[in-house]
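Q: Start with the shorter request: fold the first protein.
A: Done. Sequence, then structure:
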Amino acid sequence: MSWSGSTGTYELSGLSTREHYTVEEVVSTADVDGYDRVTTIEYPEGFTSETGVQVSKTATTTVTVRNTYTPSSINLRLYKHDSTDESKGLGASFDLFKEEDIEGGQPKEGAEPIATYATDGTSGYSAEQEVYTGTYYLFETVAPDGYNMMEHPWVVEIDSTGNHPQVVTVTENGSPKPGVLEGPSDEGVYTLKVPNSSGATLPNAGGPGTLPLTLVGAAMVSAALATLVLRRNGMQLRTKAK
C-alpha cells in the first residue's frame, strides 16, 4: 500500500478489493493556511461514510474531500463622532501599528503603520481596510478642529477563535472600551466607534496647571511693592533733606 501525489490529488494503491474503506481527516491544516477541518466527503454512487467504499480492480475509485477556507483577516473601518452626540460624524486621521512595533506605549523609531484611516468630516466614516489577526495599537494623528486628541492609544485584538477572525477586545490604558465595536455587518465589516470631546484638555493631576502664571503674578506684585517702598523711602529722604 502506498500514497502518491502532491497537488491536492492523491492516489492510494495496493488496497484489497474485499474490504470497504472510509476516509477521515486526522490532521487539520487550519492553523497553517486558514482551512477548516473537512466540510464534506463525497463517496462514489452506492457508497456512504457508513458503508465505506469498495475499490475495483478495473477502475479508479474516487473519494472527494472538501475543506472550507476561512480568511485570517477582517475588514475594519472607523467611525469618528462627537462624544455627546453619536450621530455627529467628525473628520480625523489615525494610524494603526502592530504590537511588535510599539515600545513604551509609542511606535518605535522608524516603524510604519500597517493601516492609515481618515474619517469623513460629514459622515464620520473611514474606508474599510483589511487587517489580519493580531494585536494592534490605534493612534489618533489629527483631531477634528476644536476637539481633543485621544489621550491614549486603543489596543485592538483580532483573534481567529474557531478559525473565524473577529475583534475580541478593545482597551484603552488597560481598561476595556465597551460599546465601541459594531459588527460584523452583512458584508463582514467591523466598525470601531471613536468619540471625541470638544474643548481644551485640563492639565493632569500633579501637572504644572496654573502654577507658572501664579508665580509670575506673585513676582509682579513683589516688584510693585518693592518699587512702592523705594519711592516712599525716596520721598522720606528728600523730606529730611529740606
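Q: Next, the second protein, separately.
A: Sequence, then structure:
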Amino acid sequence: MKKLVFASVMALATISLVSVPTLRAQDSDQITIKDQGEFDAYVTASSQSSPRAKAAALESFLQRYPESAVKKLVLDVLVDTYQSLNDHDNALSAASRLLQLDPNNMKAIYTSVVIKKRQCTETQDAQACNDAAALGQEGLAVTKPANVSAEDWKKLIGSAYPIFRSAIALGQPTSPATPKMTNDEVIQLVSAGLSEQVVATSIRHASNKGFDLTTTGLIALKKAGVSDALIAVMQERDAPAQAAPASEASLPAPALAPPSAPDNGCSDIDFMGVFQEQVGPGVPAWIYTATIRNRATYAKEVDIEYVKNGQAAKGTFNVGAGQKINAQLDLNNNPPTNVRMTACR
C-alpha cells in the first residue's frame, strides 16, 4: 500500500515539470521508501507551497537521509525550485549534485551550461568559460535515454544543442576529442522542425565540424530537406566572419560589419558574428549576442552601436586579454540591425 501511496505523491511532486516534458525527471519508475519516517519527511518537504520553504525542506531531507531512494528525484525538484527563485548558485549546486548521481542527466547538464555560460560572459572568468565548454561537450555526447520518446528527444536537442555549442566556443581552442557536428546532426535538427535561424546558429557555434560537402553529401542533404541557405552556412565554415552572402538572405540574424574607421583602436579586436539563442526550451524569446575576441595582450573596452526595434542603441563591453566573450545586445524577438564596432580602447 505504501508503494502505491508514494507513487501518487511523487506524481504530485513532479507536476511542475510537465510543462517542459523533454527536461523532466529522467527516472519515472515507481520507487519504494521502506522507512515510514523517511516517507513522511519526503511528503512533508515536497508538499510545501512556498518555493523557498520547499527548497529548505528538501535540502533538510537530503541532509537527514543522504542515501535516500528518492535522492535523484529530490535534486531534480530542487533544480526547478531554485530556478523559480532565480537562485542560480543553488540551482547550479543542485544540478552538480544530480550529475554526480546521473552523469548523463540532460536537464542537469543543460541547467549547468546555461548558468556557467552566463557567469563566463558576465565576468570573463576563464574557469567559468572552460567549465561551460566542458559541460557543453558532455551534453553533445549524451545519447537518448530509453524512457524518452524520439519526439521529445528531438525537441530537447533542438533547443539544447545550440546552447551547448555556443558554450564550447567560449572555452579553450578545440581539442581532438571535441565532438564534430556532422551532416546527420544538421538533418536531425531540420527534421525536428527547428527554424532555419536556429539551425544556422547551431552550425555557426559548432567549434568542430565534420561536414561531408562532397557532391554525394550535398545531394543527401537536399533530399533530407536541408535548405540551400543552411547548406551555404555549412559551406562557410572556413571563411572569416563577414556579411552573409546573398544565398543566406532568408536568415534574419545579421553578421557584424567591419570597423567603419581603420584608426578606431580595434585592429586587434575580432568580431565573430551576431548570434541568436533561444532563452530556454519552449520559451518564445531570443537573446542576440555579438561574439568578440581580443587578440591584444591587455584588456580593452569595445563600443558597439546597433539599431534595436528601429531605434539607435549602443553598449560598451570589457574584453580581457586573449579572451572571447558573447556580448548581449538584445533580448527580443527581432534581431538587431546595422551592428558595428565604433571604438576600442
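Q: Describe the second briefly.
A: The mean pLDDT is 75. The radius of gyration is 22 Å.
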